[in-house]
Amino acid sequence: MLSGAVAALLGTVLVVPAPAAAAPKCGPAGNPAPTQPTWALDRLAPETAWRVSRGGGVTVAVIDSGVSPSHPLLRGKVLPGTDVNHLAQLEGQCDLVGHGTLVAGIIAGRAGTGVPYSGIAPEARILPIRVLADNQRTFDESIPAEIGKAIRWAVDHHANVINLSLVTLDKKELRDAVDYALSSNVVLVAAAGNRQENQQDQPAYPAAYDGVIAVAGIDEQGAHVGSSVTGDYVDVAAPGLNIAGPAPGGSGYLYEPQGGTSFAAAYVSGVVALIRSAHPELNPEQVRYRLTRTADNPPDGHNAEVGYGMVDPYRAVTSLLGTRANPPLGAMPKPEPPADPLAWQRTVAIWVAVVGAVLAGVLLTLRPILARGRRRGWRPGRRPPAVDA
Question: Known catalytic residues?
């Protein structure tokens, strides 16, 4: 068991070689944008689900190191949040290390920025709550209580999903806050934990609590990432190696080759946002059921390394789950109609046709009047004499 009340952002130190010459205002500036889609986006293919759901109307609280609102992927998507640790006046929108901003970009980075990168749920919004000042381990006894306070604040400020890319020990304040969120119909997604060198796997909290969706990491080949903690509490898996995402100090990107379950949890939070948008009637346990039953199950159905397997955004959103005795919950929402590139031309053509028809009608009405006027030389006609009854 880890000693003391340990909280850690689950991921190794972010790799930020050659930052921009000008010091960023709040966090590292990052590196050039990727030129090809990341393997994680290729593998998850979230765009296959976007005709049904893009995460619209869903707010995802990111309890982390803060989230920068200035990156093009996140501009206009980061709500005013809070900081339970030192920088309250910045409303959770200062990320000194880049971890929370990268997590937020994975969840809800917007599409169509000219870079081959987006979040899983590009229309979801981010509610940032800063609880950790850096991505190093801390033995501060107040951390579990502060995470619990952050969870309660997120629930009270209308979060639909809470992402917890961090780990701490089991404490009553934290456990009670998780119960409060679940009873308030809020879905919690947490990192299963990263194995430390020469250390046995231990349950990581809040991931190990009942009702919390615990996420392990997998690599490009679909294999369990060796550093990802194993345990019966693991529900699903997602990409947790060779990760990229937005940097907080500008428009650059951070690259995390060693990955971590922090980022795997973020991918799952994005999928949960898609589900909550498409199926708002589902409660947290029903969301978890849909997520696990549509994952790419391992041969044994469930194991301690990857749970029920890697999440599948398309199946998670579109599958009709149920039996004859227990029919599927809710009807599938109608898919969004595909964009029509000729829509404005069609509108113009319709108006031209309408105006042309009106003018033709006017001309047909005036034609006999004009003909009679020509015959009379445009002299006014005479009224016939009145006839006495």
Answer: 64, 99, 262
Cis bond before residue 206 (omega within 30° of 0)? yes
Residues in the chain: 389
How many domains does the chain contain in total? 1
The vertex-334 CA angle with 329 and 335, nearest 5°, equals: 120
- Determine if the pTM surpasses 0.90: no
pLDDT at 23: 38
- 120 located within any domain: yes
Hey, CA dihedral for 334, 328, 296, 266, is it positive or negative? positive
Supply the CATH number for residue 216's domain. 3.40.50.200
Mean pLDDT (whole number) for 272-286: 97
Strand 125-130 and strand 213-218: pairing?
unpaired
Provide the domain limits for residue 161: 8-318
Task: Please name the residue ranges forming H helices in the chain.
Answer: 39-44, 99-108, 143-156, 172-183, 261-278, 284-293, 313-318, 343-375
- 21: tokens are 């010459």
DSSP classification of residue 158: T
- Position 57 in a domain: yes
Arithmetic mean of pLDDT, 356-385: 66
Poorest-pLDDT segment among 94-108, 213-227, 311-325: 311-325
